[in-house]
Amino acid sequence: MTNNYAIQVLSKNDLSEAAEICAEAMLDNPLHIKVFGADTRLRARRLKRFFAGMLAYIQRKDSLYGVFVDGSLIGVLGMLPPRRCKPSLVDSLRLLPTLLSSNSPIGTLRLAIWLTIWANIDSVTPHWHLGPLAVAPAWQRQGIGSRLLEYACSKGNDDSLYLETDKLSNVELYQRFGFTTLAAPTILGCISWVMLRHPS
Fold first, then answer.
1. Which of 145, 54, 56, 142 is nearest to 102 (CA)?
2. In CATH, 5-158 is 3.30.360.10
3. Per-residue pLDDT for 96 more than 60?
């Protein structure tokens, strides 16, 4: 990986590009196919709208970071601090238009099922909640994701770190950083993993 990179807090002006990176990087995640549809182009548009709303929520909590190389955004990391990872009633109301407008009615129902299952598993142990963690496809397999995880582990070193994923390849990466699986629920026919890393 190039050494000419920087990890910094993202601003509102970065949100559109960050949402596009998340949508492209996670376009073929099994749960995204189930929730946002089998048509690739339509799924990409829906995911970008979905992530635009979710990233705005995370950014309002000053918890959204990006990796820049030569001034270009190539990776995104959400990192909600302990006891602030669950949306308040006001947060939920602000998110609702995004959730409704980013999908079909049946897709919105599937999204609600998926997020409710993950929310019900959420650890009671105070933790940093990671996600999304995404790297632009052209920059994948070059160590960017590992650098983001190193940053997360350093920032949250005194607390537990918590995340969810629906890709086995991600599980293997997170295990290398000390995450262990708390649960592996099957959601909409797709296996997923909820993982926790204890303080160093």
1. 54
2. no
3. yes
Distance CA 20, CA 74 (A): 10
pLDDT by residue (tens digit) across 10-41? 999 999 999 999 999 999 999 999 999 999 99
Q: Are strands 160-165 and 127-135 parallel, antiparallel or unpaired?
A: parallel
pLDDT the model gives residue 3: 62
* Cα 192 from Cα 151, distance rounded (Å): 24
Q: How many CB atoms lie within 10 A of CB 175?
A: 14
Q: Where are the domains of the chain?
A: 5-158
Instruction: Quote the CA–CA distance of 167 and 28 in Å, as a whole number.
Output: 10
Taking only the tens place, the pLDDT of each residue in 139-152 is 999 999 999 999 99
How far apart, in Å, are the Cα atoms of 109 and each of 75, 90, 94, 126?
29, 21, 18, 29
CA–CA distance, 158 with 37 (Å, rounded to integer): 40
pTM score: 0.92
Neighbour count for residue 87 (Cβ, 10 Å)? 15
Beta bridge partners of 135: 75
